[in-house]
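Hi R.,

Here's the chain you asked about this morning:
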Amino acid sequence: NTAITKTQGCISCKICSKWIHASCAKLSDKDLIALKAIKSSAFICAGCEYNLTNRHDNDSIAGDVRNLSKKFDEFIISNKDEQNSIKLALDDIKGEVSACLSEIKSDITKCNDRINGVETVAFSKISNLEAGCNALHRRLNRADFLISGLPEGLDDLMAPVIAVAAKFNVDLAKHDINHVCYINGKRNILVKLNSVANRDKIMRQYFKTRTLIHRLLLF
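And the predicted structure, written out as tokens:
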């Protein structure tokens, strides 16, 4: 707290330009003389020295922050590059999947067309076969006719068939008849002749009158 005078040993701070007693600055008389003798030397008070130290620490912290910020920016850029690479890879995968799906759809369409073609051909062939079978069936049964209204339990069916033919002026012998039997629960008699011509003669005569009844037959 002693006032600074020219008669007392004192020194000025290079930074803040304040004059400080040598004893307050903890400088000996030799230190004071040496500082005054060396022109390139400078005295820095404790307060300024503290500020310089803190500034250095702050600069160090700021540098660390800048380094962290730089590293973070580099990480962001690197992450963006990786994201772009992943996006490009995903786009490539999507393109390949889309191409595969299009190819699969095309194959399915072709298979469906082939199946439809096969079904059409098969249906046409089956229809032709059915028509052929029906034609053969009609040809096979061309010489057949039915007799109804005769009593059940007849032992000899040849006789009534020959009698029916005779009533229609058609002479039949047993060798003209291929097969004769009851059908439909013995309600009808199926007659299979060996000659279509004989069957047609009988049917023509039948359609002229349609009046033949079983009591007119002679057994």
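Strands lie at 10-12, 19-21, 144-148, 177-183, 188-193.

Let me know if you need anything else.
M.
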